[in-house]
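Long-time lurker. I teach an intro course on protein structure, and each term I like to show students one example going from raw sequence to a predicted 3D structure in token notation. This year I'd like something fresh instead of my usual example. Would anyone be willing to generate the tokens for the chain below so I can use it in lecture? Attribution to the forum is fine with me.
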Amino acid sequence: MELELGYDMLGSRLRSIGEVEIGYGRWGGRPRTLGPHPLEYDMLGSRLRSIGDIEIGYGRLGSVPRTFGTWDVDCTAWAGIPRRVGPYPIDHPRLSSRVRGVGPLSVEYDLLGGRPRRIVLPEDLHALPDDLLRVLFLVLHLQTERNRKSSSAA
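-- Reply from a regular --
Happy to contribute to a lecture. Here you go:
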């Protein structure tokens, strides 16, 4: 089974993961909802603090997530690229920050390879479980934020 990732008309903001809509505030900026789950940010609006009732804890430096609810988040120390969220390993090609897999899911990219286009579920999985949806969104969100920071620094 495949889930298409939908984007806005400019192709820059993720609007859906399969049938799950991602809502934005009036002025666009950051996503505000993932389906029925509200997305909360810190006071400055720079870090995602929770997805629904699951809180995201950060380390002392502040930009690298350390916990996702009761699960640990294992990230590379120098870049904050997640390698594991709880029971789900995160797959990245060697020397790349692009995610290729989240647990049992595969992430496929557009022709230019710059943006995720679809999620491929294994044959034994007929729907995306809620916890895996939230982890997938977190990983894609972190990748988007890293890309935004690196393009603004260039």
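Some talking points for your students: Residues 122 and 147 are 28 Å apart (CA to CA). The chain has one domain: 2-153.
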